[in-house]
């Protein structure tokens, strides 16, 4: 039975993959971030690691580098499964760390399982990959890592600005709607009061002419 380590801080996503793989006969352990994953790998060696990238404490990039620079863990095939880092540059950096696959969420779980099976089979029949970036200085890794973080942060800022503009427009539309509704209610109230006021005047005129019904036209 193959043992899989699923690393994701999104509990629902992690549990979904765990239940799916267990139903297919796999032994699955989970971790909420890279630090927790490394602790579990000290106790349990697994046949495959599938990890998200954006996580607290230690993200997927750092986890992959730690695994691929460890003589024991580097033999374990590593798959990135991400919904946040999805650009071509992100993929290139991930693969340069030694990851076997880079998959963008969401993906049909049956397709994900097929990729996992293929990856495990390929890694068992081939020599372990040497991470390109580990051949270089740490500064090179940090530079590449920082670029990915900055690029993601810039995108998040742009997304946030768009969200703020959208929310502001929605609020303005709501205020306009509320103002129109208030104006309509006010206009309705004024019209009602105005009609009543005219009826009072008309009634007074009628009474002055000796007519008791304000609707009569004999004046």
UniProtKB/TrEMBL annotation:
SMART domains the record matches: REC (SM00448)
Modified residues (4-aspartylphosphate): 52
Highest rank taxon of the organism: Bacteria
Alphabetized Gene3D superfamilies for the sequence: 1.10.287.130, 3.40.50.2300
PROSITE patterns to which the protein is assigned, alphabetical: RESPONSE_REGULATORY
Every Response regulatory domain range: 3-120
Keywords tagged on the record: Phosphoprotein
GO biological process, one term: phosphorelay signal transduction system
Coiled coil: none
Matches recorded under Pfam families: Response_reg
Protein name: Response regulatory domain-containing protein
Organism of provenance: Candidatus Scalindua rubra
């Amino acid at each position: 039975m193959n043992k899989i380590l699923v690393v994701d801080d999104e509990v629902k996503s992690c549990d979904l993959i765990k239940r799916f793989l267990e139903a297919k006969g796999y032994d699955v352990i989970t971790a909420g971030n890279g630090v927790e994953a490394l602790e579990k790998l000290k106790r349990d060696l697994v046949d495959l690691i599938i990890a998200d990238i954006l996580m607290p404490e230690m993200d997927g990039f750092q986890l992959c580098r730690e695994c691929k620079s460890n003589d024991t863990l580097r033999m374990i095939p590593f798959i990135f499964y991400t919904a946040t880092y999805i650009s071509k540059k992100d993929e290139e950096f991930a693969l340069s760390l030694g990851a076997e696959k880079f998959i963008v969420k969401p993906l049909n779980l049956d397709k994900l399982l097929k990729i996992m099976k293929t990856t495990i089979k390929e890694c068992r029949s081939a020599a372990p990959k040497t991470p390109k970036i580990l051949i270089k200085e740490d500064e090179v890794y940090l530079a590449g890592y920082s670029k990915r973080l900055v690029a993601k942060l810039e995108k998040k800022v742009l997304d946030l600005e768009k969200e703020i503009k959208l929310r502001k427009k929605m609020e303005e539309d709501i205020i306009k709607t509320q103002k129109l509704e208030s104006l309509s209610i006010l206009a309705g109230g004024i019209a009602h009061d105005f009609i009543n006021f005219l009826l009072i005047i008309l009634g007074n005129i009628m009474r002055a002419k000796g007519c008791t019904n304000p609707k009569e036209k004999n004046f």
